[in-house]
Amino acid sequence: MRSLYLILLFSLISLSACNFPKVNKASTETEKLTCADLADIDQIIPIATSTINAHKNDNIWNLSTPVDTSRFFSIEDYFIDAKRKSRLVWLGFDAGMSAGSANNLLMLFNCADTPVLIWSAQVGLINKDEIKDLNQDGIKEIVCTRSMMWMGECNESYNIFNFKGGHQNILFAANSQSYIDCGNENYNERYKIGDTLENSSECLLMPPGKSSSWQVKQIHTLKIHNGGKTDGLIMKRLRVVKDSCTIEIN
Question: What tens digit of pLDDT does each residue of 144-157 get?
């Protein structure tokens, strides 16, 4: 029951870590700026700091200063529709241990006139080289990953989403959970034969093949307790089940 609760909790947190509520009012910091100005980290830091200090966004739960300027990008591209550009900004902060790698702030600005902050949230890792039009509709998709280790469990998430139409749309999501090498082993005392010690999904983004859309190759692995009196023997005797599938991003 505890494991099921933690899986559900992490799944909800992982989605919220890449799920942004709409901001109805523009930040005053953007009123005299252009969209191009938001490429400058010195212009972004006051806006980002004000956003996390406002404490009005449920999806920003424990970000705090100082800013980590080594984790920063600002991209102007087609994130909302295929005819008008907007700006996506990702910036590193500090966060509590429970956040894992979700110690970054993601902000989306509508640049129709004066830049308006329309989405923001605490998120995991985003590789700007993986921001691509994955389904060939003219809108860029974003890959967001997150990992955390907490109370003897390791959890990871992999999400692909876009902001087509001004809404966050989840195109693909996968979560992984493991008790192996997560800081509280003692497998013989904590688990019994038949228990799943790892349920993981390795996700690989693959370029278009015969279709026009990119694909995710998902390799699913189960590691099941299969006997043994010591941690070493239990690891050697694990029953490992693997399967894989390829999923087209639509």
Answer: 999 999 889 999 99
Measured between alpha carbons, how far is 49 from 34 in angstroms, rounded to an integer? 19
What pTM did the predictor assign? 0.87
- Exposure string of 121-134, with b = 16+ CB inside 10 Å and e = fewer, is bbbbbbeeeebbbb
Beta-sheet strands, E only, within the chain: 63-77, 86-95, 104-110, 116-123, 125-126, 142-150, 153-162, 169-178, 196-206, 215-224, 239-248
The Cβ-side half-sphere exposure at 87, using a 13 Å CA radius, reads 21
Chain centroid to Cα 155, Å, comes to 12
List the beta bridge partners of residue 94. 64
Output the CA torsion 130→133→139→145 (10° steps).
-30
What residues are paired with 170 via a beta bridge?
Answer: 161
C-alpha–C-alpha distance, residues 250 and 66, integer Å: 38
Q: How far apart are CA 162 and CA 176, in angstroms?
A: 22
Does position 23 have pLDDT exceeding 80, yes or no?
no
Give the dihedral sign, CA 204/200/125/56: positive
**% of the chain beyond a pLDDT of 90:** 79
What average pLDDT is seen over the chain? Answer: 90
